């Protein structure tokens, strides 16, 4: 299944991709420019593959998201979904803008603390939190733990009681709403592993109120990722609103509704999800409940703020058929095309390339997997060995999903803003691939 519905229209042209990515421009001398920085200059200095994040783009999108909520008359706490891009520089920027974080592991919690985000502004989600992670979160005093099951609620109660603490919890409700997204990133159907069945939520909330060590504060829901319309949100929030009223009618307090995230972006020609539409859905279904509201955006904020720079290491001709352009980037850098059949825009870095005729080409990586493919039958200017490209919209679920498969070192990362750039992660060396490995003594002679 594709990342979204199978395309029925033509791919966007290079000019159309530029038009929908205003943070990118072309310069007749230095080529593709990102937030005032020539991407060729970065590639010259640090090589490729290289991830580049635009701090200005990320700030702009954060502020637009917040403005959309405020314009709808909503006071909504923004908790950035750390899983989208967990670099501490990104998290520090989120904190500087006054926002919190949504985490799904103890490692992500540690990253938020290193980045200076107060524990009280952290929401801990996830279907399988370990005892050690829960102890860490409760000890630090995270703002909220989103509980995924009755079994997890009992574990939290026991741990918090042992620590002499009270954990604020929200029950994550599975509303059984189809978000109409990729099967691997939908999370709100009854068949998914996430959340508490809607029919069980009210009784479990009442049970939580009787347990030591926990304070139930409300409900959370999250129905999936790469959602492009407001309709699934409205359906889910309507069900949550019914639940809130029912629980309150039974005499219990509900202070919080965590609306989740999942707002999608335009990778190809699909219309980007609109924060204003999300705000409208929240206001329509939850605006009269008098609860504290929160959202957990990730992809919408970070995705368009990043590109992956790569170089053509081989042009493999196939007679009259489309050539293979083998990049120095691979599926171990950007997994989404292999995992989800995801479409990502590709732009050349050279200035003259935008005025040249185009041809069909297959863009692939060097890893020994047929799935190591970024694009098939993509219209691009003729690219020879050494040509550079930028793979677009990789700021979310890009570097965080990287691996060292085929013993390929992790790529460098760079942050750009206001015409300046800085390396925020140096390229891993080959020797660092095995620096934590140890050799049994009986094999030492064969090292």
UniProtKB/TrEMBL annotation:
Cofactor dependency: pyridoxal 5'-phosphate
EC number(s) given by UniProt = 4.1.1.20
Question: Which pathway is this protein engaged in?
Answer: Amino-acid biosynthesis; L-lysine biosynthesis via DAP pathway; L-lysine from DL-2,6-diaminopimelate: step 1/1
Domain (Orn/DAP/Arg decarboxylase 2 N-terminal): give its ranges. Answer: 58-302
Which EC class does it fall in? lyase
UniProt: pyridoxal 5'-phosphate binding residues: 262, 296-299, 397
The organism's place on the tree of life at top rank = Bacteria
Q: Which SUPFAM superfamilies match?
A: Alanine racemase C-terminal domain-like (SSF50621), PLP-binding barrel (SSF51419)
Keywords in alphabetical order, please: Amino-acid biosynthesis, Decarboxylase, Lyase, Lysine biosynthesis, Pyridoxal phosphate
| Reactions performed catalytically | meso-2,6-diaminopimelate + H(+) = L-lysine + CO2
Catalytic positions are 368 (proton donor)
Q: Which residues form a coiled coil?
A: none
* CDD domains with a match to the protein in the record: PLPDE_III_DapDC
Q: Which residues carry this modification: N6-(pyridoxal phosphate)lysine?
A: 83
- GO BP, one example? lysine biosynthetic process via diaminopimelate
UniProt GO molecular function: diaminopimelate decarboxylase activity; pyridoxal phosphate binding
Q: Where does substrate bind?
A: 299, 336, 340, 369, 397
| Gene3D superfamilies xref list | Alanine racemase, Lyase, Ornithine Decarboxylase, Chain A, domain 1
Give the protein family. Belongs to the Orn/Lys/Arg decarboxylase class-II family. LysA subfamily.
The protein's role, per its UniProt record? Specifically catalyzes the decarboxylation of meso-diaminopimelate (meso-DAP) to L-lysine.
PANTHER family tied to this protein: DIAMINOPIMELATE DECARBOXYLASE (PTHR43727), GROUP IV DECARBOXYLASE (PTHR43727:SF2)
User: Assembly and partners?
Assistant: Homodimer.
Q: What is this protein called?
A: Diaminopimelate decarboxylase
The protein's organism comes out as: Acetobacter vaccinii
């Amino acid at each position: 299944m594709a990342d979204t519905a199978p395309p029925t229209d033509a791919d966007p042209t290079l000019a159309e991709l530029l038009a929908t990515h205003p943070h990118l421009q072309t310069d007749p001398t230095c080529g593709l420019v990102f937030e005032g920085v020539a991407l060729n200059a970065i590639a010259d200095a640090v090589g490729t593959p290289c991830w580049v994040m635009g701090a200005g783009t990320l700030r702009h999108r954060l502020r637009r998201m917040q403005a959309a909520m405020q314009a709808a008359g909503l006071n909504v706490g923004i908790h950035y979904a750390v899983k989208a891009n967990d670099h501490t520089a990104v998290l520090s920027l989120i904190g500087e803008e006054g926002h919190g974080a949504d985490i799904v592991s103890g490692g992500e919690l540690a990253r938020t603390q290193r980045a200076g985000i107060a524990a009280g502004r952290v929401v801990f989600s996830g279907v399988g939190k370990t005892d050690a992670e829960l102890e860490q979160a409760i000890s630090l005093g995270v703002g909220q733990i989103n509980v995924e099951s009755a079994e997890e609620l009992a574990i939290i109660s026991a741990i918090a009681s042992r620590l002499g603490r009270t954990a604020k919890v929200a029950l994550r409700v599975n509303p059984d709403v189809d978000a109409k997204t990729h099967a691997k990133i939908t999370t709100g159907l009854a068949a998914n592993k996430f959340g508490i069945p809607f029919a069980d939520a009210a009784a479990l909330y009442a049970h939580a109120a009787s347990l030591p060590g926990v304070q139930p504060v409300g409900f959370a829901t999250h129905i999936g990722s790469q959602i492009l319309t407001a309709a699934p949100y409205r359906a889910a929030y309507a069900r949550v609103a019914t639940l809130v009223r029912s629980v309150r009618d039974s005499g219990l307090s509900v202070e919080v509704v965590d609306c989740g995230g999942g707002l999608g972006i335009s990778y190809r020609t699909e219309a980007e999800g609109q924060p204003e539409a999300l705000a409208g859905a929240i206001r329509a279904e939850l605006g009269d409940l008098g609860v504290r509201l929160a959202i957990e955006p990730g992809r919408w904020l970070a995705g368009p703020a990043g590109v992956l720079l790569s170089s053509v290491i081989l042009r493999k001709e196939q007679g009259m058929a489309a050539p293979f352009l083998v990049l120095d980037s691979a599926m171990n850098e950007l997994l989404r095309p292999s995992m989800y059949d995801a479409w990502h825009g590709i732009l050349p870095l050279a200035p003259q390339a935008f005025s040249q005729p185009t041809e069909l080409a297959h863009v692939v990586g060097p890893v020994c997997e047929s799935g190591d493919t970024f694009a098939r039958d993509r219209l691009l200017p003729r690219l020879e060995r050494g040509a550079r490209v930028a793979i677009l919209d990789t700021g979310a679920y890009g570097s965080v999903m990287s691996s060292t498969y085929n013993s390929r070192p992790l790529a460098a990362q760079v942050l750009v803003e206001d015409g300046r750039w800085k390396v925020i992660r140096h390229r891993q060396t080959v020797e660092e691939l095995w620096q934590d490995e140890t050799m049994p003594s009986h094999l030492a002679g064969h090292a």
